[in-house]
Amino acid sequence: MGRLGADSDFHQQLLGRIRNLCLSFPETSERISHGAPAFYYKNKNMFAQYRDNHHGDGRIALWCASTADVRSMLIELNPDLYFLPPYVAYLGWIGLRLDRDAAWSEIESIIGDAYLCKIKPKRK
């Protein structure tokens, strides 16, 4: 099974690092949503979700809230690393492949941007 699978050392270490990053922001929490660890602002606004081989897609990935312009730019600049995640892409979310050696500075930036997307008041 290699890197995939919840019991692998790679998976556990990666999820632990993602968890620490997501929970380092104020008023954040974690719970399982749709079978995967998800991270929330104020217990209701999901800003990131960790996905391991979602429906057999072979990816270890992070799905994050994003803005449409940032999402489009990232996918255009690096389509091997970024993708449109199923179910949430239409909401502006971006997928980041964690199994393709993304730089931690980039992962941190995506998580930070996702958090900021959810703490900003929505325009009416």
UniProtKB/TrEMBL annotation:
SUPFAM superfamilies, per the entry? YjbR-like (SSF142906)
Q: What is the official name of this protein in its record?
A: MmcQ/YjbR family DNA-binding protein
Query: Which organism does this record belong to?
Result: Cohnella cholangitidis
| Protein's UniProt keywords contain Zinc | no
> What GO molecular function annotation could you give as one example from this UniProt entry?
DNA binding
- Which Gene3D superfamilies does the record associate with it? 3.90.1150.30
Keyword set for this entry? DNA-binding
- The source's superkingdom equals Bacteria
